Amino acid sequence: MKVRLHSILGIPLLMLILPVLAAAQVTFVQQSFSAPSGSVPSVQVAFTLMQTAGNLNIIVVGWTDSTTAPTGVTDTANNTYKLAMGTAQIGSLSQAIYYAANINAFASNTVTVTFSGSTNQPDIRILEYKNADQNVPFDVSSWNTGKQVDAVTSTGNGSGSSAPSTNFANELFLGAALPQGKVGPGGGFKVESGDLTGDIVEDMNVTTAGIPAVATATSTSTTGDWVMEMLAIIQSGQGAVPGAAPTITSVTPGTAKSGVHVDVFIHGTNFRQGINAIFDTTPGVDCSLDPTGTIIDCFAPPHAAGTAKLVVQNLDGTESAPVDFTFSAAAAADFSMSSTGAQTVTAGSSATYTITITPANGFSSAVNLTCTPPANVKITCTLSPSSVTPGSASVTSTLTVTSTA
Length: 405
Known about the structure:
Layout: E1 2-8, E2 11-17, E3 27-34, E4 39-46, E5 56-64, E6 70-75, E7 82-90, E8 93-100, E9 110-120, E10 123-130, E11 138-147, E12 152-153, E13 171-179, E14 183-185, E15 190-194, E16 200-206, E17 216-219, E18 225-234, E19 247-252, E20 255-257, E21 263-269, E22 276-279, E23 282-283, E24 285-289, E25 295-299, E26 306-313, E27 323-328, E28 335-339, E29 350-359, E30 367-368, E31 379-384, E32 387-388, E33 395-403
């Protein structure tokens, strides 16, 4: 602070020249997590400290199940949660991110994440941040999935494309990693939340616009899949405003079988980077925006048979009017298959397995069996017989696997 003396008509005056204070960076406040074992339909996690009005809550939802999905987030402080990032999925490994902006002040706030059914190994990480823009907290986002031997990074949006660039000088990069192995923070990142399973949330402040919005992590395992999602959180006071609301003009196809991941193309206008598709309350899977900005490519999520209301939501919170999307009942299975337990096949040896086909719903037609070894694996396999016809009871075939190396 500087002090100057001035005078008017010989009368001394005291003038204080106060320094201009820069807006504070987006800053981590607190976190908590819960990773119950087994399958549960919902998970509750409590913040341990008093929550401050106007702050931002981030809820990272992980689970190991491709047949269920989160259907919503609530808390005891009556905050309103929206989807920040839809489901990114590889195999059964799945993750989505929710948020509540401009939260209410509350002591001992408990967050509840609800799933569409009993969900395997959910992993919920909740975080509070201060100094984020209260109206438009996010600039851009990125996500990716891969194998543990790959670089763990959000670059790609699952399709190999480059990450988007930031639009504001002062942001916080938040990365959420869900690995089957374990990961550590990427360069410049700090882990703010994590558990013994290796799932982490990391962050890093950046002070330059126009840089790629990427979160990275360091793999400490050599096997297993991973999911990485990243959000660029806008520091308050930078003039972020929402854009025009998106509009859906058509959906192809307009139906999907319940429980089947069908690729859906959503056509429309005012689609922006980071847009999500939501079927009733369930996020779409592996959504990406095409280069023209007019088509969203998503997999339909697990959903009960019936008509769902499909909306798309930009990262700035603007949302389309709903359109109908039909989930039809999945066809009943004709038969089920099972086999005897796993065996180790050493080089130059063989192993046999009994394949059992059990009919269902009166099925009695022939079932043709084939065996195709994975590429670059030196084995051969045969089935005898290669065609079986179940009647009122189960039938079997013998699978012989021979190592040729």
